[in-house]
Amino acid sequence: MSYLNFKSEYDRFPKTTIKNHRAFHGYDAIYQELNKKINNRSVVVFDYYPGVDENEVYELIKRFNFSLEINMHDIFKDGKIMTEQMKYNLTDDRVFGKMYYGNLVDFMDEDKLEEAKDKINEHKGSVIVYGVGASLVSHGDMYVYFDMARWEIQLRYRKGMANYNATNFDEDILKKYKRGYFIEWRIADKHKAERFESFDYVVDTNKSNDPKMISSDTFKESLSLLAQKPFRTVPYFDPGVWGGQWMKEVCNLDKNQSNYAWSFDGVPEENSILFDYDGVTFELPAMDLVLYQPKELLGEQVYARFGAEFPIRFDFLDTMEGQNLSLQVHPLTEYIKKNFGMSYTQDESYYILDAKEDAHVYLGLKEDIQPNEMISDLESAQRGEIVFEADKYINKFPAKKHDHFLIPAGTCHCSGKNAMVLEISATPYIFTFKLWDWQRLGLDGLPRPINIEHGKHVIQWDRTTKWVKENLVNATYEVKEDGNDCKIEHTGLHELEFIETRRYTINNDSFHKTHGTVNMLNLIDGKSAIIEGDFEPFIVHYAETFIIPASIKEYTIKPYGCDEIKVLKAYVRN
């Protein structure tokens, strides 16, 4: 069946063209550029994000014939010792760890680090220091940073790549991801952010044996320009046990895949950004922009509150012709801070982009249920003794296109089948406590993690039918904004949540002010829209998420190639 009455123009690979800059494409071109600047006394530093294919890059290193090589693996502690040192943060849980706020050097042998520095000082010939954290030994005469996006790292985990300096090639993917999310990526991002001004070159290693390199000036200017204009991140899509068929058509995906369950489209912690340098496409983690231009992107107030983190997340959940999501709940702020070291939690909402007639959302508890009885039934169901009767305990609301269901932390919820959800939430997306998964196995053939022990401590038992209807289901009302005569509706989020969402129904120019805070938007209805302001006109298509940096004070949105559009905007409340 078709879900659209027009041909989708959804762009899966949005790029920003940067003029008057170039990229060096391929190892031959990279070698030639670097070799021009290396002599027989040069100290060269190749610093890697964990996940970069070190064997691949070493083939480049061998071409230079350095007289001294220092491999960072010789400076890091033994892999088993590192894992033992991480034990508190890794925990025994399959999914959840504790956030690590230390540094890369914490996992190095300090004596070997000092020894390496002494070797360089004493050596009379050319030197290469290479590997994760190489600049902790020396910034050298030339500093090249090899970067990689988190999504590519996750795909490589699935193909058997181990975590850094580990031998867990065949370990559960969720455990590899946990080690990356809670420890490796945190310390690697901190290390990288502290060295942006020291880079001489940056290398995109996201495609095997197809590197691209840009100069430090190109890297910094590209990010600075992007923080002054609307942009999109590169969405990615993944199948799931409950996945549906809507995104295949609307997002122009592979029709041969059985389903697509979810997509991140607008999650800078996970997504990439693409630049075009005279026909060469260069990929960077979008987090580089957040880390390098936090005030310009986020705004002073958001940066002061969250630091260099992008606090809003847009993603898709597709159950059209699929199945229910798992019944779940998210932790309260005090719980996530105490147990996982995070400063804010995953408040969220479901905006219904599309739905079939039988679509519904499970949300909140029914009146007069007994908490002990519900938890007992969940635990019995997890042991396989009974089938959990979700309809006995959880409200089930019909869902139609453009409904908005608000889900403050502590509220039991899930989308039912035959709904296409734009999920708008705070960023800590990993913290979902699954309570019941409808007797399913994951695509890997393993039971999906159930977290009743965590969940029972955060369920808000007073969020029952009457309260949910009054507070969380289509709590929509019209608002006015100066200079705007289009229809504007506050659709959420709940007062317990820090994100504001507004829906604009637009026939002509609509005028918007960022008020010094980053805006994240999605074109929720209509073929295309054009965004204009003190930047080149920017066109977005149906279902695309886009970001307006805080540095943009004012902008306009109007239909493009259609008569009417609807846009959903999210921003952090003051």
Can you tag this structure with a few keywords?
574 residues, alpha+beta, 7-stranded mixed beta sheet, 6-stranded antiparallel beta sheet, 17 helices, globular
What does this structure look like?
- By secondary structure, the chain is of the alpha+beta class.
- Helices cover 25% and strands 28% of the residues.
- The protein is built from 17 helices and 31 strands.
- A seven-stranded mixed β-sheet has the order 2-8-7-6-3-5-4. The protein has a six-stranded antiparallel β-sheet with strand order 9-10-13-20-15-18, with no helix packed on it.
- A hairpin with an 8-residue loop joins strand 22 and strand 23 (487-492).
- Helix 6 packs antiparallel against helix 7.
- The two termini are 44 Å apart.
- The model has no long low-confidence stretch (mean pLDDT 96).
Shape, principal axes of CA atoms? globular
Query: Looking across the biggest beta sheet, what order are the strands in?
Result: 2-8-7-6-3-5-4
Head-to-tail CA distance between termini = 44 Å
Strand content: 25-35%
Q: What summary fits the major beta sheet?
A: 7 strands, mixed
Per DSSP E runs of 2 or more residues, the count of β-strands stands at 31
Counting DSSP H or I runs of 4 or more residues, the number of helices is 17
Please give the oligomerization state of what you see: single chain
